[in-house]
Design brief:
Blueprint lengths: L1 E8 L6 H10 L7 E6 L3 E7 L12 E2 L3 E9 L2 H8 L10 H12 L9 E9 L4 E6 L8 E5 L2 E5 L2 H6 L9 H9 L14 E3 L4 E6 L2 E6 L14 H15 L6 E4 L4 H9 L5 E7 L18 H11 L2 E7 L4 H11 L9 H11 L5 E3 L4 H4 L15 H8 L9 H14 L7 H29 L4 E3 L5 H9 L2 H4 L7 H6 L6 H4 L13 H13 L9 H7 L6 H20 L4
Parallel strand pairs: 13-14, 13-16, 14-15, 16-17
Antiparallel strand pairs: 1-3, 1-9, 2-3, 4-5, 5-6, 6-7, 7-11, 8-9, 8-10, 11-12
Helix pairs in contact: 2-3, 6-15, 9-21, 10-14, 13-14, 19-20, 19-21
């Protein structure tokens, strides 16, 4: 919905110039309006993408005591407004004011009352203290830097960097994790030294005594009872989609022809405009050679559009522009592009933003409903190392996999999971998917959509739907050797049958890019700037022989790393 940023500093100083630089770096997130608020110890900036109450929803939003900057959409805003109305004189029709009123009423308990996606900061002008919170799954971002009594925060790392002195330095361990295990990277810590993410489901308070952070909510996988009737799950999906359609601006859908995006389009109960990606020669690729993209989306998306009466727009991506796309991705994604599919996200967002201000996406369905077919492979779930080796070649960094695998295992065990039984391994693997893979996926979806002034709404992150998903354990979710079995059963008759039984396939990517990647990767490592984290000789070796899918993806990351260091002036 928007871009937020701010500086809290208890020592005297003029921060207006720094705030304006932050606001400028967030302008793509809010092309409709921008404003700044300052006080002796805090300054807030906001750039607005107006989806509700375009005339009355300007931010920073002020009451007698509090000042709010907020990014997101609250889907139970109408219910909360009704509950809060007796004690709050609402002046706007936007959900931002609902968040402000809810904070005034419930304080630190406010985030748990919000069903939606959000990151917000409230400054208390009486206590001279700030409060921030981020939604349960981390759909909306919140990145910050703290030094002494100063806190700088924003929706994107590039905006925080705009307020800090000197050239940014890379956090080498984070960059190495990106190169070795990209799907788990860039969510625990940013790629830049000194920056931090407020974790999903967490809150933050800053006052003169310092900064404190705590968890306000958790997606607990150990609450499964397997007693969710299909009709209850189907109704929850339909309600979640209906909530995400509330807007005073056009809303569309990104349609892959997979189960999740088709279910969203069907549950909308109106012919939304839909966008589908198509790369060069996509229909003729041998999908038996791919571990991730295992079928062509095009015929399934066309079937969904035809059966549901959608106005489908096919977004064609020409291979001749991919080299320039890689540079754009690295500029947009300050966490470093992790997946080749981000090229598709970029082009889909660019096309949809010409017609809509928001699109519904199927993100979070696979991660919260056991939707990945590798969960059915005992070798992939034997431990974090098995999952890493399935997708990522480790021969360029042979000593890096084991420490990372041990780190992921320790994180899952600290959360109460173990790897000793088949059921335990499934839950532990899924915990990693929810807490490392999903935040990265959601970060990418947000940053590429908002780069074009487009909001990506995530119905499968609806709190009521998540509560049902937690009750469905792996036994039922993977029944009869089928991933996402409970959700598939619930959607019988809602989506075309060929799509309901279709095996999970990732968002498409261009499969004919080997020569292009080899040329661009050789350029990226030629001057030695990446030698601190890259074995140049081994990368050049990959540029001289045929590659498999995992090796092509590795060169994609090397190329993006080169562009990223250039774009941000990063010292490795």
């Amino acid at each position: 919905m928007c871009g937020i940023g701010g500086i809290v500093r208890y020592e005297p100083g003029d921060n207006l110039a720094r705030l304006r630089r932050m606001q400028w770096s967030l302008r793509h997130r809010g092309p409709d309006d921008q404003d700044t608020w300052t006080s002796p110890h805090a300054g807030l900036v906001h750039t607005r993408l107006a989806l509700l109450d375009p005339a009355g929803g300007a931010q920073p939003l002020r009451s007698d005591r509090y000042v709010l900057v907020y990014n997101g959409e609250i889907y139970n805003a109408a219910e909360l407004r009704h509950e809060l109305a007796p004690s709050w004189d609402f002046r706007t029709c936007c959900d931002a004011e609902v968040v402000l009123a809810a904070h005034a009423r419930w304080g630190a308990a406010c985030p748990a009352r919000l069903n939606g996606m959000f990151a917000y900061f409230v400054w208390d002008t009486i206590e001279e203290a700030g409060f921030a919170a981020r939604d349960l799954l981390g759909v909306k971002p919140f990145v910050y830097a703290q030094a002494g009594d100063e806190l700088v925060f924003a929706s994107e790392a590039k905006a925080v960097l705009a307020a800090l002195p000197g050239r940014p330095r890379a956090r080498r361990d984070a960059v190495l994790e990106y190169l070795v295990v990209p799907c788990f990277s860039g969510v625990e810590t940013p790629m830049f030294e000194g920056l931090h993410y407020l974790p999903p489901g967490h809150a933050l308070r800053i006052d003169r005594s310092g900064v404190s952070i705590w968890r306000w909510g958790e997606h607990d996988l150990q609450a499964a009872t397997d007693d969710v009737p299909p009709e209850e799950l189907r109704t929850a999906v339909e309600r979640a989609v209906q909530r995400t359609l509330i807007a005073d601006a056009p809303v569309g859908v990104l349609l892959s022809g997979g189960l999740d995006s088709t279910a969203i389009a069907a549950a909308a109960r109106r012919p939304l405009p839909a966008w589908t990606i198509q790369f060069t020669d996509q229909d003729s690729y041998d999908y038996g050679r791919s571990r991730i993209v295992i079928s062509d989306d095009t015929p399934f998306a066309a079937l969904a559009a035809r059966e549901l009466g959608l106005a489908q727009h096919v977004v064609h991506v020409d291979r001749g522009g991919l080299a320039a796309d890689l540079q754009r991705l690295a500029i947009q994604n300050d966490a470093l592009p992790a997946w080749e599919q981000e090229i598709a996200q970029h082009h889909l967002a660019h096309a949809a933003a010409l017609h809509c201000k928001a699109v519904l996406v199927g993100d979070a369905a696979d991660e919260t409903h056991y939707g990945y077919h590798f969960l059915l492979d005992p070798e992939a779930t034997r431990g974090p190392r098995g999952l890493i080796e399935r997708f990522f070649p480790g021969d360029l960094w042979p000593g890096a996999i084991e420490p990372l695998a041990a780190k992921y295992q320790a994180l899952s065990e600290e959360a109460g999971h173990d790897w000793r039984t088949p059921q335990g391994r499934l839950l532990a693997t899924t915990w990693l998917i929810v807490h490392r893979w999903l935040p990265r996926l959601l970060h990418n979806g947000d940053i590429h959509a908002m780069a074009h002034g487009l909001e990506a709404r995530v119905p499968f992150a609806d709190l009521d739907l998540l509560a049902l998903a937690r009750r469905i354990g792996p036994t039922r979710a993977l029944a009869d050797g089928v991933e996402k079995a409970a959700l598939r059963q619930a959607l019988r008759g809602v989506v075309p049958e060929a799509i309901r039984v279709r095996k999970k396939s990732a968002l498409p990517k261009d499969q004919g890019v080997e020569a292009l990647y080899q040329r661009e990767a050789a350029r990226a490592v030629a001057d030695g700037r990446l030698d601190a984290v890259i074995d140049r000789g081994r990368v050049l070796g990959l540029c001289e022989r045929p590659l498999d899918e995992r090796e092509r993806a590795l060169l994609f990351r090397v190329i993006c790393l080169g562009h990223w260091t250039n774009a941000y002036g990063v010292v490795l």
